[in-house]
Amino acid sequence: NAGVMQNPRHLVRRRGQEARLRCSPMKGHSHVYWYRQLPEEGLKFMVYLQKENIIDESGMPKERFSAEFPKEGPSILRIQQVVRGDSAAYFCASSPLSSGGTDTQYFGPGTRLTVL
Amino acid sequence: QKEVEQNSGPLSVPEGAIASLNCTYSDRVSQSFFWYRQYSGKSPELIMSIYSNGDKEDGRFTAQLNKASQYVSLLIRDSQPSDSATYLCAVKGNAGNNRKLIWGLGTSLAVNP
Question: What pLDDT is recorded for position A42?
């Protein structure tokens, strides 16, 4: 059973370009979460999605950032017109569908974005 | 006040000793609590989850939760050099759509051979 998969593992972009980060959840998991970790800082929640639905995007910057989780294919985190401050590790996590709040989130290896 | 607070460390213990990591949280309605381990340059790896007051043991690890004091801890017995990492405390709120994890900044643990 493959774990959470993310690609690319490393991504280099110049200022103003677009970055697309992909995440495939664990088999059987229907919830996807994106987190960002800036150098020397903690993990910050960005967005929580289920298939074809954004459930909670309270941690997502209002501009330049968007996320989707289509019916088919991976979840995509898209950053338009990247700036140097977007340089960070972006982690995706997934969890199974379960009642209550006891579901556990499992993390992918992350995408390390560097903006030149 | 930060939502989830941890001592940043570094916490240094000799090999074979018990390492004690602490975490406090501010939201009284929090229901789920997690400890993750993160090696430098790697992603967080789940160690323990705990939902009820008391202790939960898994191998060398014991998580302790006290909701009245809004406190959760992780004990690592017989610490090994391979346990050297940053330990992250994460808290989740009520059920329903509030599934996001709120993270502490982590405690750096160094186990000295």
Answer: 86
- Chain A contacts of B105, Cβ < 8 Å? 41-42
pLDDT at position B26 over 70: yes
Nearest Cα to Cα of residue B109 among B4, B16, B3, B20: B20
- Residues of chain A in contact with residue B100, where contact means CB-CB under 8 angstroms, are 33, 45, 48, 56, 58-59
Mind listing the pLDDT tens digit for each residue in A81-116? 999 999 999 999 999 866 555 578 999 999 999 999
What's the helix, strand, coil split of chain B in %, to 5?
5, 55, 45
- Distance (Å, rounded) from C-alpha B17 to C-alpha B105? 24
Mean residue pLDDT of chain B comes to 91
As a whole number of angstroms, the distance between CA B107 and CA B110 comes to: 10
User: Among partner residues B43, B49, B92, which is closest to A107 by beta-carbon distance?
Assistant: B43
